[in-house]
Specification:
- The protein is mostly helical and 266 residues long.
- 53% of the residues lie in helices and 9% in strands.
- The chain has a three-stranded antiparallel β-sheet with strand order 1-2-3.
- Strand 2 and strand 3 form a beta hairpin.
- Helix 7 packs antiparallel against helix 8.
Length: 266
């Protein structure tokens, strides 16, 4: 079964300037990585990715690779990606769920939540295997925090999901609490089963970022924005592409809703 979220029905009180800027920054950094070539790209991952052993003082990078201080790498690692599929998947989730969270929090609070969740996610993964020399790169730890914040603000919002089950293809509206709850459960189970410190997906970063987003959104939220907002559309409905775009994600605000081998890539 293939399930891909496409868009949601959350209100837009302001344009997603920060979300768009974060996506742009990640794309620019990826194009820079790609232009370096394989060997220099590996060096960039070591220099700007977060290496737990270096961060905690168990190892040191060669002087030629020390582009930024080790304490800064939990932030720089958020803007590097392994490949087009890694980048595309992360940016899709950031665009779908980041817009609503940014609208609810405002640009400054949303930026703080994103960066803090990314740092906490990276540190969570690092603490699982503090002597690992495998660099971690990717924005999905920070994006997991955005998903956690979204779950607190819009648990009953509906997300249009592209479903492909063998020969059955549908666009289905799914409540965020179910979609994101299943996503978190998969990350938790995968983290528990994955060997620590090996190259692959940094599942503990996803878990740490998601939980951080749930907590931080309660601290950073604007007081005039309600948490646990009600649904605006009907769940578990078959959506038609043309009709769905008229009902979902158009920016209208209903009156009731105003209140690899190199690294575990994330």
């Amino acid at each position: 079964m293939l399930a891909i979220p496409l868009y949601d029905d959350t209100p837009r009180l302001r344009p997603p300037v920060v979300t768009s800027g974060l996506i742009g920054a990640c794309v620019v950094m990826f194009l820079w990585q790609s232009a370096l070539g394989p060997d220099a790209g590996d060096a960039a991952a070591l220099s700007l990715g977060m290496v737990p052993a270096v961060l905690f003082g168990y190892a040191r990078l060669p002087p030629t690779l020390q582009l930024v201080p080790a304490w800064l790498t939990p932030i720089t690692c958020m803007f590097l990606h392994e490949g087009w599929l890694h980048l595309g998947g992360n940016m899709l989730y950031l665009w779908i769920f980041g817009k609503g969270v940014e609208s609810a929090l405002g640009a400054v609070r949303y930026t703080a939540l994103y960066l803090l969740c990314g740092v906490i996610a990276a540190l969570t993964q690092a603490m699982v295997s503090p002597q690992s020399t495998v660099p971690m790169i990717g924005a999905s730890g920070a994006i997991a925090g955005v998903l956690g914040a979204y779950l607190v603000i819009y648990p009953r919002s509906n997300v249009v999901v592209f479903l492909w089950i063998i020969i059955l293809v549908r666009l289905l509206t799914v409540p965020a609490v179910i979609l994101l709850g299943l996503w978190f459960l998969i990350q938790l189970l995968s983290a528990s089963a994955a060997p620590a410190g090996e190259a692959g997906v940094a599942f503990w970063a996803h878990v740490g970022g998601f939980l951080a987003g749930i907590v931080l959104v309660l601290v950073l939220r604007r007081r005039d924005v309600a948490m646990l907002q009600p649904p605006r559309t009907t769940s578990f409905q078959i959506a038609r592409p043309r009709d769905a775009r008229q009902r979902f994600g158009r920016g209208s605000v209903p009156s009731a809703g105003r209140p690899s081998r190199r690294e575990p890539w994330r």
